[in-house]
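Thanks for the sequence, V.! I ran TIGR02677 family protein right away. Repeating your input here for the record:
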Amino acid sequence: MAERSALDLDALTISDRFQLFNFTRRDDHVTYLWILRALERLREVHRVQAGAEDLAATLRELAAAHDGVPALDAADLRYRLDELYADRVVHRFDDASRAGNLARYRNRQSVYQFSELGYRAYRAVEGVLSARSEDVNLSRLVFSDVLEDLRALADANRAGRAEHVYRRLSRLDSVMEDMGRRSAQFHVTLGEILRSTDASPDTFLKYKNALLVHMTEFMAELDRYQPRLERAVREVEETGLTTLLARAADTDERLFMDRDERLDDWRRRWSALRGWFTTEGGAPARAAELHAATRSATSGVIALLRQLTEARRGGVNRSTQLRHLAQWVFDTPHDGAAHALMGAAFNVRSARHLGVAHEDDEQISPNATWWDAPGVEVSVTLFRSGKAPTAGVPKPVRRNPNARAEIRRRQVADRAADRQAAARLAEEGAHDRVLDEVDTRVLLRLITRALESRAVVAGLLSSATGTDEGTLVRLVPSDTGSTVRTTRGLLHLPGMRLELAPRARLRGAAR
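Predicted structure:
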C-alpha cells in the first residue's frame, strides 16, 4: 500500500519529503542523530513535547550508557532543533508556561516534538543503521500458518463473523507483507555475497551447508504448500468475496478514511494476497517466481563454492592478485610509473573514437546518428594503435648458432655428470655417505622409475626395479626401511630397502 501511494506522488511532494533527510547530509550528522534519539527516548515515556533543557538531560543519560554522545548545552541544542524544524523533521511550539520570569518569557521558550513524516524519516535512518545481513532468512514455516488462516477466514465468512474476518485478513496481510520483505531482503543480501569481491571466503565456506539446506528446505516447503494454498484462496472467494471485503471495511477502525476508501484498500490487499498463490491470465504466481529465484540463487551459491574451492586449490584469487598489484605499485620508482601500472591493470585509458565504413553503406541512412546506426567490427590493431591492420612482409628467420652451441655443450656436460653419478652409485651405493646434488638427482630418477613399475601381488606390493645410465635400482619390501643422506637433508624410504648395482650384477642376482 505504501509503495503504491508513493508511485502516485508528484515531483514537488517527493522533493519536500526528501528534505526530511537533510540532517543526514550535514557535517555533524551524528550529532543530529543523537538529538533525535534523545527526542525518541522522551517520546517512549509519553513526553511528546520536550524543550532544550529536557533533551540536554536525556543526552547526559545516554552518554552514561553509550560512547560518542555529544555534550551540548541548551543554546546549542536549540539552534540544532531549529534546523530540524526547518527541515520539517520536528514541530516547534512556543510554551509560555515554561517562563519563570519576565526575562525568560522575553526569550523564546520553545518545545519540540516529532512530526509524523519526520519520525518516519528518523526510523528509516535507524533501520538502515541497525540492519544486519546475518538476520536475513526465508520464512518457510509461514506457509502452514497462511493455510490455517485462509481456512479460518472461509469459515468466518460463511458464519458471518465480521470481526473474525477482519482479524484473519489483517493477520494474512501482515504475514504476506513480512514474507515479501524477508524474501526480497534475503535475495538482495545473497546477491551481494555472490557478486562482492569483499566477501570473506572463510565466512561463506563456514556457512555454505546451512545456506544450501535453508534454501532447499524452503523450496520443498513451497512446493508442498502451493497447491493447497491456491485451493484455499479459491475456497475463500467462493464464500463471497464482495461480502468478505465489505465486512472487513465495516469493522476497520481507521477514522481518517471513509468506508469507500477502506473498501478499496482491502480490495487491493486481497488482490496482492491472491497474486502470491494463484495464476491468472498466463502470469505466474509470485510464489512461483520466488521459487524460481531461489533455485537460481542456489545455482549461484554452488557456482561460487566451486570458484572458491578452485581458487584455494590454486592459491590465487582476487584478494591475492590485488595485494600483489598494490605491492608492485608501491615499489614503482615514481608517480608516473605507478599511474601507468594502475592504468594498465584496470584498463583506464583515454577515450578513443574509431570509425569504420560499413560493408554496405547504402543500407544506412546518411542522417542516422552514431547512436542509432548499427555497429561494425573493429580490429584489435585499429583499436590499440589507431592504424588499420595490414598483412605486412614476412619476417626473416633469426638464427643464433652460438647460443645453440652453448646449449648443446651444457647438455653434453650434464649427461656426462649424470653418467658419472650413476657409476658412483653403482659402485659405492647410496648409504654410508652424503650424496651431492648430481647424485641425488640421479637417485631420485631411479627411484621414480622403480616406483612406477611396482605391481600388487596377492594384495601386497612386490619388489620394484628401475634402470638409468647403466645403473639398476631395486626396492625390496623391508620392515626397517632405509634412509639416504643428501646435502639437502635426509631421504626416508619407509617399508623399502634400497639396493644399487650395475645393471648386469642385479640381473644375475635376480636369476
